Amino acid sequence: QMADPFLYNTGERSHYGCLGHEVQIEYLKAYVCRPSFFTDKAVIVVHDVFGWRFPDIRYIVDLMAGHGYITICPDFFKGTEPWTSTDHWVDFPDWMKNHDPMKVDKEADVVLKYLKEQCGAKKIGIVGFSWGGMAVHHLMLKNPQLTAGVSLYGRIVRDSEERYGLLNPTFFIFGEKDHTISLDQVFLLEDKLKQYCKVPYKIKVYPGQVHGFAQLKPEDMRPEDKPYIEEARRDMIDWIKMFV
């Protein structure tokens, strides 16, 4: 049995009763949760490898909506199977080839159009976790319509100059004990952003935290991790509130 080098332990997750509803947007399904009052601010949540139906990600959507944003998590896998905890790690590279977090531009445009035309959104931010953190990093380099982004433990894939010219404010969250992202990579990112980035950015490493730490639901948190999880979520929301 190979140690799982990328995925956090999905273990037993408690059931989660969602507050939002599912919609169809062109060729994409999506989960949407709206605040109880009118707003013209929206947030796109980009799921991790477990896909748009995973309870933890829906919890995050509902959390953002509770802070006053029309929040949407589209199925960036376009109806194909997400990764599951019973899949074999040896198959992961092949699965990733068909689920490239850098190929999300078309889906992002579909969702942005929906938020603007159907929901009246004027300012739109984006947050993404793991696979979704990689997608957010990519989109913040490419899509000026996204007012601000938060990338949570997105693996840093290529070191090239075009990885650092962020278009709008972006916050990078990492866990200190993430075995998929070395602290060297985090320091390199910081170094390069200092050189090339012209917009506000922030990088923060949370002590003792592993990959996937920030999206756990309260009842799934270990007491010693809880303060860091809550801090990361507050930081994520504060960054969005500052710019969106």
TrEMBL record:
GO terms under cellular component: cytosol
Pfam families: DLH (PF01738)
SUPFAM superfamilies: alpha/beta-Hydrolases
Cellular localization per UniProt: Cytoplasm, Cytosol
InterPro entries for the chain: AB_hydrolase_fold (IPR029058), CMBL (IPR042946), Dienelactn_hydro (IPR002925)
Main location: cytoplasm
GO molecular function: hydrolase activity
Source species, domain of life: Eukaryota
Annotated ranges, domain Dienelactone hydrolase: 29-242
Extent of the signal sequence: none
Family named by the database record: Belongs to the dienelactone hydrolase family.
Protein name: Carboxymethylenebutenolidase homolog
Organism name: Oreocharis arfaki (tit berrypecker)
Gene it is expressed from: Cmbl_0
